[in-house]
Amino acid sequence: MAFAPRGAPKEELLRHTRQVGNIIDLNKCMGCQTCTAACKSLWTSREGTEHMRWMNVSTYPGAGYPRDYEKMGGGYAPDKTPTPGKLTTLTDVGDNFKFNHADVYYGGHGQKVHLKPTSAVTGEDPVWGYNWDEDEGGGDWPNGYYFYLPRKCYHCADAPCLKACTHNALYKREQDGIVVLDQERCNGDRLCVEACPYKAIYYNPVSQKSEKCVMCCPRVEQGIAPACDRQCPGRTRLFGYLDDPDSDLYKLIHVHKVALPLHPEYGTEPNVFYIPPFDTTHAFAEDGSITDEGRIEAEVLINLFGPDVVPVIARLKAERSKRQNGKPSEVMDLLIGRNFWDRFKDFSNDPLQEAV
């Protein structure tokens, strides 16, 4: 869909010939927030976007980002009926803390005054913020655990945000399936925010319009991977066309079937996939000995990725075992990603050379 008149049917706005997407390996993510910083410095440094993190990384089990988004509804019911959810608040999406820099640096108070945040919403002590519950996790002593979950807009094939918009401000780009939001058409009613079950759309109180991840589409048009993917120091990301049978992305999703969408029960057909975490830290037995079992509880992963996560983890363990025994494993080779550029294939151009 290049651009549709306001009266265009939603099917026309969803139409696309190709679709780009991601895989993120949660076994490698170390929560460094480099992806978050890369996105924020590129896209959300404008007035009214201070609280937004189009790319974010949260600790799981946890409230996630925005806070408790999994309890806010949206998306579709099992019979594909749209189910509008709740609106996020400025506090839910991280607030916009104000600090007493003037008092600390220029007030002449010495050690009597220390740096202190206040909420932009209440002017009081903050009650929530981005990564408020970082590294808390779950499990019982001595088998506590946590893992990091990077999230951004999933550019869903059946995007409920697009269907909810009364002004046709949201549409998928025909050439790559990226969901974009036309600022000229947005009237700020936030029906899209209610509709998105991932709560990946944010409200700008200054412009009074909604905003969202654009998958770095200006870079994608020049064969450059999105900033969050390219800047990841842990080689956790793959990006490319989901229909390219020669890509590592395609092989992991469609051939080996070890990459899963987040919350498939929402029914939106998201286009960002995850390699689920497994055996990241071995559990202790009651006698204090170390077992061969991982600490992450199965129900936590099933809640995130659905029941398919159980056979996927079994498959990943089997592939790892093959490699440990000196046998070939294409899955392990693809996940290791020795050649950084293989992870992006058609999108491996250098942003400095392309002058983006």
TrEMBL record:
<keyword id="KW-0813">Transport</keyword>
<keyword id="KW-0408">Iron</keyword>
<dbReference type="GO" id="GO:0016020">
    <property type="term" value="C:membrane"/>
</dbReference>
<dbReference type="GO" id="GO:0009055">
    <property type="term" value="F:electron transfer activity"/>
</dbReference>
<keyword id="KW-0677">Repeat</keyword>
<keyword id="KW-0479">Metal-binding</keyword>
<feature type="domain" description="4Fe-4S ferredoxin-type">
    <location>
        <begin position="20"/>
        <end position="49"/>
    </location>
</feature>
<dbReference type="GO" id="GO:0051538">
    <property type="term" value="F:3 iron, 4 sulfur cluster binding"/>
</dbReference>
<dbReference type="GO" id="GO:0030313">
    <property type="term" value="C:cell envelope"/>
</dbReference>
<keyword id="KW-0249">Electron transport</keyword>
<keyword id="KW-0003">3Fe-4S</keyword>
<keyword id="KW-0004">4Fe-4S</keyword>
<protein>
    <submittedName>
        <fullName>Respiratory nitrate reductase subunit beta</fullName>
    </submittedName>
</protein>
<dbReference type="InterPro" id="IPR017896">
    <property type="entry name" value="4Fe4S_Fe-S-bd"/>
</dbReference>
<dbReference type="GO" id="GO:0046872">
    <property type="term" value="F:metal ion binding"/>
</dbReference>
<feature type="domain" description="4Fe-4S ferredoxin-type">
    <location>
        <begin position="177"/>
        <end position="206"/>
    </location>
</feature>
<dbReference type="Pfam" id="PF13247">
    <property type="entry name" value="Fer4_11"/>
</dbReference>
<dbReference type="GO" id="GO:0051539">
    <property type="term" value="F:4 iron, 4 sulfur cluster binding"/>
</dbReference>
<keyword id="KW-0411">Iron-sulfur</keyword>
<dbReference type="GO" id="GO:0009061">
    <property type="term" value="P:anaerobic respiration"/>
</dbReference>
